[in-house]
Amino acid sequence: QVQLVESGGGLVQAGGSLRLSCVASGSIFSINTMGWYRQAPGKLRELVAVMASGGSTNYGDSVKGRFTISRDNAKNTAYLQMDSLKPEDTAVYYCNAAVVRIGLPIISDYWGQGTQVTVSS
């Protein structure tokens, strides 16, 4: 099995910064992509940022220029640096990974439990 554990959420004022971490563990052969999604009250879950193992990235329009995703492949860890936070960034942030498990010729999608980010005005 594979587990994703997020950390780093909290309460900050508008204009502040947070850095989220996601650590993947378990029977992992490789991780193709890791990313972050968020879901605010009354809204659908949306893409924040994703990164492939080779380093290519994709960002949601609402966070471009403010958030930065990074990965440490050796540690199976992804980070999300969030700067210039706005109240509308308030949401539960979920880590996602597309994983090739040891001994299985398929890619499986895994999600973390989520971490709350609250930005006050």
Report on the architecture of this protein:
The protein is mainly beta and 121 residues long. 0% of the residues lie in helices and 62% in strands. The strands form two sheets. Strands 2, 4, 5, 6, 9, 10 and 11 form a seven-stranded mixed β-sheet that branches. A four-stranded antiparallel β-sheet has the order 1-3-8-7, with no helix packed on it. The termini are far apart. 31% of the residues are buried. The model has no long low-confidence stretch (mean pLDDT 97).
Short description:
The chain is mostly beta strands.
What is the element layout, followed by pairings?
Layout: E1 2-7, E2 10-13, E3 18-26, E4 28-39, E5 46-52, E6 57-59, E7 67-72, E8 77-82, E9 91-101, E10 107-111, E11 115-120
Parallel strand pairs: 2-11
Antiparallel strand pairs: 1-3, 3-8, 4-5, 4-9, 5-6, 7-8, 9-10, 9-11
Q: End-to-end span in angstroms?
A: 41 Å
Note the overall shape: elongated
State the secondary-structure class: mainly beta
What's the number of helices?
0
- Element string (H = helix, E = strand): EEEEEEEEEEE
Let me know the largest β-sheet.
7 strands, mixed
Topology, number of strands: 11
Helix content: under 10%
Q: pLDDT average, as an integer?
A: 97
Strand content: over 45%
Low-confidence stretches: none
Radius of gyration, in Å, reads 14 Å
